[in-house]
Amino acid sequence: MRVLIVESGKAPRQSEIRRNLASMQKVVGGTIQVLYPFEEPVALVCNDEGKLLGLPANRALRDSAGNLYDIVCGTFFLCGAPPDGEDFISLTEEQLEQYRQRFLCPELFLNLGGEILCLPL
After folding, report:
1. Is the pTM here over 0.70, yes or no?
2. Pair 73, 60: CB distance under 8 Å
3. Residue 116 near residue 71 (C-beta atoms within 8 A)
4. Which candidate, 35, 45, 100, 107, has a CA 20 to 30 Å from the CA of 85?
5. CB neighbours of 115 closer than 8 A, spacing ≥ 6?
């Protein structure tokens, strides 16, 4: 399955992984959590315990107005998630490019008295 892997402090990279739990867990470094933060059928697969384990803050998730609502900690990957299927699928070439651009710049997160500031690196 063709995915986009996003690591902390690095630009996203395309990769091929197997469609099984062990391969997905290997990429994220532990148990997986699947999020659906996008309008289109694309899944964000991350480490379920990323924040609890103190994994590095990676990228911000923003709502449609651009407001930060969560931070993904640790390595994650993006893959296709068709609404009528139970299995993940490869990203299309268009999706690869769209999300490569969306997550292109690594981010730095600062906690300023309870307010999180997100800066591009």
Report:
1. yes
2. no
3. yes
4. 100
5. none
